[in-house]
Structures are given as C-alpha cells and as structure tokens.
Write a structure and sequence with these properties.
GO terms for molecular function: heptose 7-phosphate kinase activity; heptose-1-phosphate adenylyltransferase activity; phosphotransferase activity, alcohol group as acceptor. Its EC number is 2.7.1.-, 2.7.7.-. Catalyzes the ADP transfer from ATP to D-glycero-beta-D-manno-heptose 1-phosphate, yielding ADP-D-glycero-beta-D-manno-heptose. With about 475 residues, the protein is of the alpha/beta class. The protein has 2 domains: about 300 residues, UDP-N-acetylmuramoyl-L-alanine:D-glutamate ligase, CATH 3.40.1190.20; about 140 residues, Rossmann fold, CATH 3.40.50. Helix 11 links the parallel strand 14 and strand 15. The protein has 14 helices and 19 strands. Helix 1 packs across helix 7, helix 7 runs antiparallel to helix 8 and helix 8 packs across helix 9. The strands form 2 sheets. Strands 1, 2, 3, 4, 5, 6, 7, 8, 9, 10, 11 and 12 form a 12-stranded mixed sheet that branches. A 7-stranded mixed sheet has the order 13-16-15-14-17-18-19.
Amino acid sequence: MKFSIPNFEKNRILVIGDIILDNYWYGITEKISKEAPIPTVNIKSRLSKLGGAANVAVNASRLGARVFLIGLVGNDESSEIVRSELVRLKILFDLIVLPNYLTVTKFRIFSKNQQIARMDFEEKIKEKCSEYVSYILEKVKKRISFAQVIVLSDYGKGALYETSKIIDLARNYKIPVLVDPYGKNFEKYKESTMLTPNLDEFELVVGKCSNNSEMEKKGFEMIRSLSLESILITLSEKGILLLSNKEHKLYLPSFVRNVKNVTGAGDTMIATLAVAFSSSELSLDQSCFLSNIAASIVVEKENTSDVSIEELKRRFYERSCRFFGILREDQIKNTVNICKFLKEKIVMVVGYLDEIHLTYVRYLNRARNFGDRLIVAINIDTSIERLKLKNTFYSTENTMEILLQLKSVDWIIPFKEKSPENIVRKIKPDVFISTKICSSWIENIFRYVGEVKILNFKDNRFYDENVKIV
C-alpha cells in the first residue's frame, strides 16, 4: 500500500513554550523625518499573527489535529489579542498571566513590502518569578492525559525553565516529546524523543561541521550523549537530515520554489512532524517527509504563517516535490529514498538516442504499468559514439525534452558508461524492463533488481514474460 496523508482529526497535540505575538505594520514612505535622517512611514494597515509556541499550535490545528497550548503571557493588550486569536482558531489553552511583565511582542514595519525596522518588547522571566514558571509544570500535569505527542517550543524567553521535569513527566506517561531547542545547553533536553535544531543551532553546540560525514558523526554522538531517539537537522536550501539511535540516516531535499520569508518555518516543521508522528499510520521517515513539504510551503508565504491540510495534500501529490525530470547522479539516492518510504514501486528501462518512435513510446507506456514510477536511463552522445551506434538523429537535449513530454516517464538519468550497471546498482529498481536479454551487461544487473521482465512486440502490441533470477 502506498504512502498517503491520513486524517489527523483525532490526533491530540500538547504544545508548551514561549508565546510570541508578531505584529506587521505596512505603510508608505514619502519623506525623510525632520528629526533625524530616517524615513517617515505612513502606516496604512496592521496585522497580528501568533508566533513562537502559539504558532506551533496554529500550524498543528490547521492540519486538523486537536491542540492544547500552555504558556506565559503578560497582563496587557497583546495577551488579549493572543487569547482572542486562540479562541477564533478553536485552540484550547491554559495561559499563565505574569503581573508587571509584557507578553513577548514584535513589531515589523514595512514600506512597499520592504522591511525597514523591527521593534521587540520582551522581558525574560527573572528568578523572582520562578513561582510562575513552576505553574507551567502544574498545568502540564493536569493536561498530560490529553496528549499523544508533546511539543516543547523553546525561544529562550523563560517559559521552559523546567524542561527536564516536563520531559520526565512525559516519559512516565510514555508520551513522545519533540523539542525545538534554543541556546548552547542541550543537556536540559536529555531523554526527550527528538530535537529539531537548524544547522546553526546544531553547530553552536557541537562545533562547525566541515562536511556531511562530520555532521552525521556529531549528530549520532549527540543522540547517544543525550539519550535521544532521533534528531532532525534542517539544512536551509539543502533540505533536512534525519538521524536516529538505530544508526539510521535520511537526507531529504528542499522542495522550496521561491523563498519569501523564513520566520516561523521551524514552528511549521515541528508542528507537522508532531501531528504526523502522532499518527499510527505514518513512519518517522514519512513524518519527516511531510514536515519538510510543509516547511517548504510556509517559507513561500509572507509574514509568520501556517499551512493548511489542503495545502499540504496539494503539494504532496504534485510532481514538483519529488525531483521529477532529469536527475543528476548525486540526486539518485534522495529520490530512491523518497520512493521507498512512499512505498512506490520503481520501474526502470534503458534507452538510446535513436529509439524515439511510436513503438518505443508504447513500450514506455507498457513498462510504466508494472509500477508507480518509471525511470529511463539513457545513453548520451559520447556513450553512443563509444558503442559505435549509428543513425542517431536526436541530440541529448532533444531526446530529454521529448521524453519529458511523456506522462509515463517520471525521471530521466543520462549516463556515459558503456553499461548502465552502475546506475542500476544505485537505484535497485523493483522491476527492470528490457526488450531482449542478449545484451552483454544485462545478466550482471540481476543482483540489483527485484525482477526482470522482457517485453516482446507482436501483432502491434507488447507481451511480457518474466525472467527467473538465479
């Protein structure tokens, strides 16, 4: 059965952390201030969005999950806006009001879509207010039976001073804890289920990583030292890296088309991960895949934003999120990994530049029927010259363009070697299709494929036969 997005309406997520209110003021700059050499912005519109842990809650709710939010706010206008938005979005909450303190609030000022200033209003929780921080643990104790998964959203504002106690409590109830970490001290997240740092946050703790191997090594060391089950590192435009305590690793590419704003992308990532992780129908790899797609959607939006279940499904089922088209050899591994946990069956054929004709198109259509995805590994010009094949009427570029127009073809992989054995070894397709078995290299690939089928053309149609692999 192929991987699909399940219904999340019965999933329950408890979000705990630093609540932020993000304000966006939009206006027009028409003059320079007489008071100082700075622009004067005539504000035309204002927008308030929930940020921090509240944004995590919003994103989880937009995917259909039931969400409960616990955090700290001040006794001020911003806290009233936060409450009003949570009520409007039907998110359950239990907020602790700190007297004489401000709700963490950020103002971003824009002129003609260009941000020109940001103002922050915040006060970190001081030791004398530790009694209020301890109230969070009491709230968690009351609400813990609600949760299938707990998310700790740490922005370093003070709501999660007792992180280790919350993690211990969750462990006693056998509830997974996903943490969006902050700062240099990751020890306070010890024995949580998963951390989701970005690369900068990760390197702040473990030191600079010169290459992927060093990053993986330090990631596995962190998993062992902190007794984690896994760690998910976001790598900006390079995608994400998942490492687990079972020495499993998975790289997923970025599916971003056009980055507009990265504010809150980590909130969307961990919210989607938590919702998917709480579903018994999805594996950890699949949950990471969905969170990666969600994050790629949200960075294409303006301001602090969220992703709806409809948007997630739409992008999930689009071709654009799965490296469709011409693949470089360095993209093969990621593509195959994606197919594996999507439980898609890969079919592979080998083609040459002089084979583009109606019968060959029918051959590809027939081959595609044996699986979910069709890869055409095609000899490029230099290889054909080496093989001394003549009557090649199409250039490499023309052949690629023609094949990409066919609905049956998902990926094209050009190769220069005399034999496609190296490509087949990397892909390990479920089904390998050929029109003959007399090629000198075909028997060498049997060890890398699930099954081989020979398609014979007769009476204007193709007939297939299985080849027994010994």
